[in-house]
Write a structure and sequence with these properties.
Layout: H1 3-9, H2 12-26, H3 35-50, E1 61-68, E2 75-82, E3 94-96, E4 105-107, E5 116-118, H4 124-127, E6 132-134, H5 140-151, H6 158-180, E7 184-187, E8 197-200, H7 201-213
Parallel strand pairs: 1-6, 3-4
Antiparallel strand pairs: 1-2, 2-5, 7-8
Helix pairs in contact: 2-3, 2-5
């Protein structure tokens, strides 16, 4: 089934209920939308998607799977693209994050070694007639809900998404500069050999702002 076919065949009211419930778990209580707000914003998104002109299927299928969070190991729905050109990394070699990996390593940034890719910010017109792979075994309604939740935020239209992408990109560049200048907080790894967490000052200020807002 393609993304467009899914949009046209499911019970959208059930989809909106699932999205609203998911938002309630992932958004601060002061910002949680009402059911009416969810229906209004996501109805607009669905209508915009359905009205997209017929297109060729995208080079990668949409994959919905369940995976575990890297940090807390909790399961969550992961919506991504499935790479049809994927090949398993050479056995016995360790990952290396760059070109010209040393002996005994392979370049993890080589696309052929990535089974999945993030969906973020791909034009909606390019994926509307792309097949959806339900690897998680979800109902059609939950399947669509997870895709819509990944595709937009709070029911943003594609234009709103693009505007906010520019703002996010600007903030990412700012965060990188802060880290390079040492304007950040470093949290040690939980265990030996683990990853340390680096939080730029601008991000830590936002976290404090959200915390204060909920008091």
């Amino acid at each position: 089934m393609t993304f467009r076919e899914l949009l046209k065949t499911v019970d959208l009211n059930e989809v909106y209920r699932y999205i609203n419930k998911k938002d309630s778990k992932n958004i601060a209580a002061c910002d949680r939308p009402s059911m009416e707000q969810t229906i209004g914003s996501y109805t607009r998104v669905v209508n915009e998607l359905i009205q997209k002109p017929k297109a060729r299927k995208y080079s990668m299928s949409i994959l919905v799977r369940e995976t575990k969070d890297f940090f807390d190991k909790h399961k969550y729905a992961d919506v991504c693209f499935l790479n049809p050109k994927y090949i398993a990394p050479p056995k016995g070699l360790k990952p290396w994050g760059g070109k010209n990996p040393p002996a005994g390593h392979y370049n993890v940034n080589n696309n052929k070694y990535s089974r999945i890719f993030a969906m973020g910010w791909t034009p909606w017109s390019k994926i509307i007639d792309t097949p959806v792979i339900n690897d998680a075994g979800y109902s059609p309604e939950r399947l669509l809900a997870e895709i819509l939740w990944e595709l937009t935020y709070y029911g943003w239209t594609e234009e709103m998404v693009n505007i906010n992408v520019k703002e996010i990109s600007k903030n990412v560049k700012k965060a990188r500069k802060e880290i390079k200048a040492g304007k950040c907080i470093e949290l040690p790894p939980k265990k030996k050999g683990g990853y340390k967490i680096v939080i730029p000052d601008s991000v830590s200020q936002q976290i404090v702002g959200v915390a204060n807002k909920q008091k």
